[in-house]
Design brief:
The protein is mainly alpha-helical. It has helices at residues 6-20, 25-44, 49-66, 79-84, 86-125, 136-148, 150-176, 197-202, 213-216, 260-270; strands spanning 181-185, 206-208, 243-247. It has two domains: 1-177, no CATH class; 178-271, no CATH class. The radius of gyration is 27 Å and the shape is elongated.
């Protein structure tokens, strides 16, 4: 027997309850079961979103690591340097793919639950004997809304998780190549971007990484912007599109972050 569509189940359920109203908890439960079955089949058939996530993240990985796109945020780091951490970078890719498959399942389960709650709430509100004042088309659209929005939400999640993966890959590259600090970069100037006010305020600020090699040698000190470790990272918060420019040498730092020893080291380099 072919699985019913959500549209068909809702059409029939709304018609029945419009005529008869809420007269039986058992009858309502039967409709809940039918709708859940239809919704699970429909949600699972949205072009295998977990496979879409895999292709999406694989594509980003190829662009950022295979083609070296990530290096634009790591002045001085080379493609050869990326090969040294290739294993860590691939491990992060796989971790993100698995995590996203779980996230998609949770989102789908929530969409189905919200749809069922909407249908249950509506059915239980119809007076016994039914009602002729019901706008069936409107009710159907309201109940089905979470499922209808699911493909859009999954694409939105894919984009966000792509940003998060790039940020994580970039941090792996930075730590392996002994970065000293990070400059925060925000997209707040981009039209239509819903930026966070505190992230806009971080734009251009330079945050030191705790325990970096230059700090251990007494060449640098934490600047007025503080430590990167003490704030939320770029891409960490939901739908954050900020990115980091990683700094590896003393010349890239604000002068106020250099110690006397650090300034002397630069002076010696100039000779």
């Amino acid at each position: 027997m072919a699985t019913e569509s959500v549209y068909d189940v809702l059409t029939e359920a709304i018609s029945v309850f419009s005529d008869k109203g809420f007269d039986s908890a058992a009858r309502m439960e039967q409709w809940q079961i039918r709708l859940r079955r239809a919704a699970e089949a429909e949600a699972g058939s949205i072009k295998g979103a977990d496979e879409i996530i895999r292709r999406h993240l694989d594509g980003i990985f190829k662009q950022q690591i295979g083609q070296g796109g990530i290096l634009r945020h790591h002045t001085g780091v080379t493609k050869f340097d990326l090969t040294r951490v290739n294993g860590k970078l691939h491990a992060e890719l796989e971790r993100r793919i698995v995590a996203n498959a779980g996230l998609i399942k949770l989102n789908r389960d929530e969409a189905i639950s919200r749809t069922l709650r909407r249908m249950t709430g509506w059915m239980s509100s119809v007076p016994k004997g039914g009602s002729e004042a019901i706008d069936k088309r409107k009710i159907k659209a309201e109940i089905a809304k979470p499922l209808k929005q699911l493909p859009y939400e999954e694409r939105r999640v894919a984009i966000d998780q792509g940003h998060k993966m790039v940020a994580s890959l970039s941090e792996i590259v930075a730590k392996d190549n002994n970065a000293i600090a990070v400059m925060w970069k925000s997209h707040y100037r981009q039209a239509g971007y819903n930026y966070r006010k505190d992230h806009k305020e971080r734009d251009g600020k330079v945050y030191m990484l705790k325990g970096n090699w230059a700090q251990e040698k007494g060449l640098v000190k934490v600047g007025p912007d503080g430590y990167y470790d003490d704030i939320t990272a770029v891409g960490e918060e939901p739908f954050c599109r900020c990115y980091a420019k990683w700094l590896y040498n003393l010349r890239s730092l604000p002068e106020g972050m250099l110690t006397v020893k650090g300034r002397e080291a630069l002076g010696k380099t100039d000779k």
